[in-house]
Design goal:
There is one protein chain. The chain has one domain. It has three helices and three strands; from the N terminus they run ααβαββ. The chain has a three-stranded parallel sheet with strand order 1-2-3, covered by helices on one side. It is of the alpha/beta class and 99 residues long.
Amino acid sequence: MKPHERLENLRSGAPEPYLAMIEGSLNDYDMLLAHANKKFGPPKRILVAGYSMGAQIAVLFAAKHKEVTHIVTMVPPAAQCANAVASINYASTVQAQCF
């Protein structure tokens, strides 16, 4: 299923495919961070950036990982039908510098 189809399902009341996609992406980023930490040690700075759905993932990732120091986002989707991954619900917990 393509991302826009998952978003259409979300809007029509079937959030599961969209939630799985977002959670899967976050898991991928978690694994990448764990690998980088293991190989290079903890970084001094972590910058996450994203546009559209990538902005949503950037906010969620920064909210989950307090070691994120900077975040640059543009136009995160509201995804209000899926509160578990709605950026607006996590924005206040982000401790990174926002630009």
